[in-house]
Amino acid sequence: MDIEPRTRAPPTGGVEWTGEGDGAVPTLTRNLFTGSGPGDHRLDVVEGHWPDDLDGAVLIVGPDKREPGGHWFGEHGVLCRIDCRPGPDGRLGVRARRVDTRVARLRDRMPWLFTRVAFAELSPFGVTNLANTNVVVLDGRCFLGYDAGRPVEVDLETLAHLTPVGGNDEWHLGAPGVLEPLASVTAHPGLARDERALYFVNSSIVPGGPVSVARWGLSGPVERWPVTGIGGPIDSIHDVAVTRDHVVFCDLPFVVEPETFRGGRRTRPAQDVTHLWIVAKADLRSTPPGSPVPVVEVELPLPTGHLSVGEDDAGGVLTVNLEHIPFGDLMLPLDREARSHTTGEPYDVAYEGLVALAPQPGAVGRYRIDATTGAVLDAEVVWDDRFWGAVLTTRDQSTPAARASVDDLWYSGCGYDPELVSEDWWRLYGDGACHHLVHPDELPPEGRPASIAHFDMAAGKVDDVWAFAPGAAATPPTFVPRRDQSGPGDGYVVVLVHTVERKELHVFDSGDLGRGPLAVAAGGGWEPPLLLHSCWAPSRTGPRPSSYRVPLRRDVAGALRGLPGTVAGMARMARMAASEGRAGGQSNLARPVS
Ligand SMILES: [Fe+2]
After folding, report:
1. For residues 20, 22, 25 and 28, what is the CA-based torsion angle, rounded to 10 degrees?
2. Residues 180/128, Cβ–Cβ less than 8 Å
3. What are phi and psi of 75, to 5 degrees?
4. Distance 479 CA to ligand 1 centre (A)
5. Could you list the residue range(s) of the whole structural domain that residue 370 is in?
6. What angle do CA 529, 534, 535 make, to 5 degrees?
7. How far is CA 8 from the centre of its chain?
8. How far is the CA of 52 from the centre of ligand 1 (A)?
9. Residue 520 pairs with which residues in a beta bridge?
């Protein structure tokens, strides 16, 4: 099937652009990278009435930036737990904690052993797992993901670090270390609730190196199967989804040019397509771990940040939603050398580290795909001119009915500030050669405010949008089901909003964003920086329902046993990189960490 997003016209009709920012020129707030760090807080409800039928907690993880500098993703993780129900004092409790891994504690004692290369942190212990990217909750347990490290488990209530998932001897390792050798494991696992298992992809930093699908049943060993059938070199694999019968994952554009570590500027744009891979669970069940299983590969126009897939794949047909990020570039952070394409001026230091969020409307592609052949049976890309600078989505995952078919996505975005389009970006993308929705020559001079939009994927349209005040950045959004939910999608969307004055939590009726926030909470000294992913956690009764831990002694032994193979792999990588360099190709010597 031919899919031509270049020529797709924006949808017409729909609701009017509502909200506070209509018609204003937004200049993005400058407080995104000045966070308050770990602590305990109580937020006041400063506007409206906080609904009384929310339970559980919203968890948000991200880099613990205290001040601007470096790259957005280049800081150790801080995890925030926000009570959804106000306490007797009418306030919302917030607990923020550093993800206190073993290596983080070692760094406290021996900081001189640690050094930064781009946004990776290196030491004799290995490549530090910053544990700052993703958070999921399954079976009363909380797991954090980071693409350049193993998942780690923290206590759902106290947020105390408990254990890495899988010993060093259970993952394919990409760089040596005596405690945390680099393990490239997707930050987003596929949650197979019916199996009480998580699925991951464990890849290699060697171009063309091994890629494995991994399954972990929340205790016991990690099972891994190398996959065959991946057509070409991979930038990064970040997100995995599972259906009843399949494991689905896609690539994330992540250009790493080693010259940039020495102050050079980027020379190549990110890829403008998505590769999607499908593995049949039946093949995993019939194949002993360690033996290869085949993948079906699909290539689609437009690059993708994240994906969601309905669990119901009856008849072997997958319905896949791809959150496209045309012109987005996670490896193009604003730095001291960057200049605005609009003004020619350097940037306020407050923006240092902000990556090139797509200066485009947010778009989600919905694809029906034959899982056996990879044939695309149907394709539609949904977008709307009222919603720009898309960052993250949320959806109802609280019931089997909600997970069977992903029809509702709530998507938050930071809008579009023309002055944040840098000369570097324009040099790479300004010719419009990459797949896109709005040509760079036609970008709106007046900008767009941050907003949240409801994507009705079943109907193929954006049917509800709320625009935030000028300058606000809104992310992440988190769906929270109503206590007595009437059906899938019935509930609330809680959004962290960075305003020019302060940081706020806005709660919306999921079925009526255009009404505006039902309530706003703020204060208590909680001033989080720009974070990353979030999820909703139902209240847990009782202690952690597991005693799983990877003992330190076994972890060190596993790291040391893996050393010879890891060093040999790095030597291969160096030879391939040198060979690619001579041929003028792209190297992925360093791996993405988000
Ligand atoms: Fe992500």
Report:
1. 40
2. yes
3. -150, 155
4. 16
5. 39-590
6. 155
7. 27
8. 30
9. 47, 506
Quote the ligand 1 centre to 33 CA distance (angstroms): 19
Q: How far is the CA of 432 from the centre of ligand 1 (A)?
A: 26
Closest CA to 212 of 135, 273, 289, 285: 289
Count of domains for the chain: 1
CATH number at residue 433: 2.120.10.30
Distance (Å, whole) CA 340 – CA 334: 10
Least confident of 110-124, 209-223, 252-266: 252-266
Q: For residue 473, which of 10, 17, 16, 21 has the smallest C-alpha distance?
A: 21
CA of 306 to the centre of ligand 1 (A): 6
Give Cα separations from 185 to 37, 74, 169, 281 (angstroms). 26, 18, 14, 19
Question: Rounded to whole angstroms, how far apart are CA atoms 314 and 214?
Answer: 23
Question: What is the 343 CA–ligand 1 centroid distance (Å)?
Answer: 32
Please tell me whether the overall predicted TM-score, pTM, comes out greater than 0.85 for this model.
Answer: yes
Q: What is the DSSP letter of 19?
A: B
Coil/strand/helix, residue 6:
helix
Is the residue at 379 inside a domain?
Answer: yes
Q: Could you tell me the distance, in angstroms and rounded to a whole number, from the CA of residue 187 to the centre of ligand 1? A: 7
554 CA distance to ligand 1 centroid (A)?
A: 30
pLDDT tens string 14-26: 233 333 444 445 6
User: Which residue type is seen at 179?
Assistant: L
Cα–ligand 1 centroid distance for 171 (angstroms): 21
- The string of DSSP letters for 156-174 reads TTT--EEEESS-GGGS---
Alpha helices in 310-408 (DSSP H): 400-404
Give a yes or no: residue 10 inside a domain: no
Is residue 522 in some structural domain?
A: yes
pLDDT tens digit string along 263-318?
Answer: 789 999 999 999 999 999 999 999 999 999 999 999 999 999 999 999 999 899 99
Ligand 1 midpoint to CA 579 (Å): 31
Q: Is the peptide bond before 476 cis (omega within 30 degrees of 0)?
A: yes
The DSSP letter of residue 111 is: G
Report the b/e string of 163-192 with b at 16+ CB within 10 A.
Answer: bbbbbbbbbbbbbbbebbbbbbbbbbbbbb
Phi (first) and psi of residue 411, to 5 degrees: -120, 125
Pairing of strands 503-509, 519-522: antiparallel
**CA atoms of 594 and 136, how far apart (whole Å):** 15
- Enumerate residues 6+ apart whose C-beta is below 8 A from 153: 141, 142, 143, 144, 161, 162, 163, 164, 165, 548
- Whether residue 3 is contained in a domain is answered as no
pLDDT of residue 388: 95
